[in-house]
Amino acid sequence: MKRYLLRRILLIIPMLFGISLLTFGVLHLSPGKPTDVVTDLNTKMTLEAKQKLMTLYGLDKPWHIQYFNWFWRMLKLDFGNSFKDDRAVLSKIGERLPATLLLNFLSLSLIFMLSLYIGAMAATKKNSFFDKFTTLFVYVGYAVPTFWIALLLMILLGLKCGLLPISGLRSLNYDELTGSEKALDILKHLILPVSVMALTGLAALTRYCRSSLLEVLHQDYIRTARAKGLPENKVLWKHAFRNALIPIITILGLMLPELIGGSFIFETIFAYPGMGRLGYEAILSRDYPLLMGIGTVAAFLTLLGNLIADLLYAFADPRIRYR
Amino acid sequence: MLRLYIKRLLKNKSGVFGLGLIVFLLLMALAAPLLVPQDPLQQNLKERLQAPSLLHWLGTDDLGRDLLSRLIYGSRVSLLVGFIAVTLSTLLGSFVGLCAGYLGKWVDSACMRAVDILLCFPTFFLILMVIAFLEPNIANVMIIIGLTSWTGLARLVRAETLSIKERDFVLAARALGLSTKRILFFHILPSVSAPIIVSATLGVGNAILIESSLSFLGLGVQPPMPSWGNILTSGKDYIHFAWWLSLFPGLALLFTVLAFNLLGEGLRDVLDPRDQS
Amino acid sequence: MCAGCKPDSHHSQKTSAEPAYDDSFIESSIGDASYLNPVLASDSASSSINGLVFNGLIKYGPQIQLTGDLAEKWEVSKDGLTLQFYLKKNVLWHDGQPFTAADVQYTFERLIDPEVKTPYSSNYEKVKKFEVLDPATIRITYSEPFVPALESWGMGILPKHIFQGARGKEFNQHPANKKPIGTGPYIFKEWKTDEKIILEANPRYFEGKPHIARYVFRIIPDDAVEFMELRNKSIDTMVLTPDQYQAYPEFFEGYKKYRFPRAAYTYIGFNLTHPLFKEKRIREALAYAINKKELVAGVLLGMGISATGPFLPLSWAFDPEVKDFEFNLNRAKKILKEEGWTDSNQDGILDKEGKKFEFTLMTNQGNKMRSLTAEIIQDQLKKVGIKINIRIIEWSTFIKNFIDRRDFEAIILGWTLSPDPDIYTIWHSSQIKEGQYNFVSYDNPRVDMLLEAGRKTFNQKEREKIYKEVHRLIHEDIPYIFLYYPEFLPVVQERFVGPAVVPLSSFGFGWNFDRWFVPKNLVRYPVMAQE
Q1: Could you tell me the domains of chain B?
Q2: What was the ipTM of the complex prediction?
């Protein structure tokens, strides 16, 4: 086990190398240059001035030298400065990541609790009204276009009823509030985005939860457990659940990059200062250092998450053993 | 066997509902030119943003085009994107997942590291990058969605395969000396087909939704060709004073994605050999 | 044309109430600022903030005439080669330090510093000598007369003592770019990236303390949400789209709507080296076939006027004598027929020598007006038998792959105009290299000559004649079809007194923001006492 762990951790390094090279390749094959947006067809800017900017960005050098320079600095944890505003890439990411993680953590907890409950209930009472209703409900949630439902809810709850703030993360008078008021303020701003995110993300987990439970419930050892006269509740929670966790862990592992990367559309609609907007704006403005930084940081965190997921497999299913 | 499946599927009400809706949508997409009340590209600036009426059942858009006609034509784009993208991703994902899970060793490592690398990128981020750099058109949109959404399935199939390959019937098959190919495709594939089918049906819906998200950013199907995504997106700008322009494409998307999911559920119940209560 | 210049809603407010030195003004923007440093920033979000925090030596007055800002007055030598600025005395930086000529010199040195990432260096290339005569006098000598040079001294002046002589990379990354100190009416308070920027009134502002105590700049990236926030009364101003402008009146209870020309035009540009568009007659036919009135009605809902040339109607460079191409389908068809384009195979598309009249019309992604315009034009030209394919491409790709490489047939784009009519970089034939702005490859020796003269002539009467002729010639040559001038449609919460529409508003509605106020009885967000 220890050797396995060590190997996996060592594997992260070449993978990061591969990922950063891939990101770099995609970026440099792409048309457009960072200077396009700065200049924005600014007629006051001459060709010479544009070329000067290219040199200042280090974009006149061949790509492998640019990559090497980047990699060398990255090893020293220096991701360089954003082309857009010359701020350190890491501090830009550091500003956004917590906001995105907060939102995702909250909605994921909600999703997790709801889907375990709904999944378990639906699986044990297969084809009941509850099963059918929740199936429909989670699918409707999944099928509805995010920005559309978000706008509708904002109009209904924010504009018409005035119950919740429409967008943003904090009120304008945030700084004048006391500690508990501050928490309440952020909470109020988070209700709408968290519920919309939970609603639209519920389906996958609930369905997998239900189907894997169903599968497990028909396995011999569950029958044995039942035959032994164990109460149904205990059978479900103790025996069935542990096995049903495998696909759920997989799904969670798959969601990781999205959890870290955030959702551009979502953050745009809610004027939420997260990673998704940062990334998309970086794509549009060809902010290479920032894109490389986001790619590498997201990849690193995801690799770490995957490692944990794989370890959890072993925990959930004793038949899987790593050597 | 097939007859049995069909018979069982017909007993599954929500599955039948989904199937019916999909058949209806397919027929609508195929017969679009015969069905539309008006030319979906015919502009009439004097009648822009008209509310639903007898003349325009679902109202008109910002260039005075008939919304119903545009939605009918839009179904072609959405369904095409959904089917082609998912076909691509399902083939790739199942194949890679099966091989990696069953063959193990270096095949597993190689496949999984490749998947890991791709999985490290937020999918939508990757799609955005490529689409923004390439040109947004329907072929590119389908291919990119297909090529970026197989990795999840591959991992899922691999995980399932991993736990199935230690089961008795596989061990027995191996003991009988059956070929790897045979074991893979005749013993393991059927056992993991349920999650593949569930995932593929969810996938069609997902691909349709991704197209609409790309349209939200103006990177989806290009005008004047109507897709539900770009109609809905232009409806967003008018959500305060022309509700029909976002409501109807929103509902069309919702019901279509729902139909695929319900059908997938139905199929899952039917195909799963271990589930005969 | 100015019928719409007055606020739409009733103006019967009790203006008798005393102006308060209080309240907040909440504005919103689609994107966040980049550098709060006028030398480095080029995006509109940063400019909105920098305009309130910094001052230039000069600025434009309400009638688009240059007036002093940090400069008391200035002189231009007879030969146009020397500029002498006399600076205002007793101007203080926000931190209390006095403003002097050394600050101007420092700012100038950064503008021409080869390692500073400024997009504006070209404006100052022609400066031969920069001298500080005394702490309040500056003399700038040019190597050749350059009229737009004067305008370039509207650049915000930076505090030398804050930057402590930082140059090159150090300047680019200086922390003051995020926490600016200026001389302007508002003092920087706080910046939460992608959320908001907050400024507060400068009690020592040399033109008098502004009335509105706090300025809040919120980032709301989506237009539909921004409008929702406006309806929710959580922002005080917004620039409307034509559809929003015409929405139900109850949406605007408590707001005043304004409507006036904006300093911009939208056009179709032709690649003049493309065989299809080489012939002026063909472009003329297209000009007759495009119904600009329908475009203005369909895209702008009538809130705009059709364009005839590269200047704004309110500019002195604009020649009102220029007659627009009247929409005339028969005339367009006739010209096309004379040029040999007929529909010989009856498929509805014109052809000549076996080739169809078909071209691709490109525009950038993210601009709804332009894509609507493209769709309407596609429909209009179908009526004369021309087939258009629309391609909408992401901005950076569009510029790099198509505009810079001249790899396009026709495009829809727009230009934003600045008060000075110098348009050398767009129309002079020396500007057709990759990456330059004459991407349609327009080449008219007479226009070249006039554009050169326009940059050197200080005499206003003569300049006027020069640019009027430029307007005429470009209109006649049809390198672009000038489509329309859109209108600017801002709304402001009605408690604010002071928003006024003057010619300068076309270049920025908040031109006199430091003079706006809220009557004491209407203050909505009292700002906590901090003095």
Answers
A1: 14-32+65-271 (1.10.3720.10)
A2: 0.84
